[in-house]
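Morning. Coffee machine broken again, so started the prediction first thing and wrote up yesterday's gels while waiting. Chain of 83 residues, entered below exactly as on the submission form.
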Amino acid sequence: MGSFSIWHWLIVLLIVVLVFGTKKLKNIGNDLGGAVKGFKDGMKEGNNSEAPADASAAPAGQVTANSTAADKTTIDVEAKQKS
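Came back before lunch.
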């Protein structure tokens, strides 16, 4: 019961292609590739969000009138720290 040879893997690949079809396997590959790309982009975005994007940004906890008037779907709240 040693490792499989190249012929075993080729037979398994042939059976998988016959069962699922090449179009289904291509779709699965595209979905997996998109998920990996999205994960990498999210990791890059997460690292960039730690640094302040704009020096003129309001400090945390302050609510500006312009932000509430511009976007009616966002609810701004004041963040308070526990003492």
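The radius of gyration is 26 Å. Going to sketch it on the whiteboard this afternoon.
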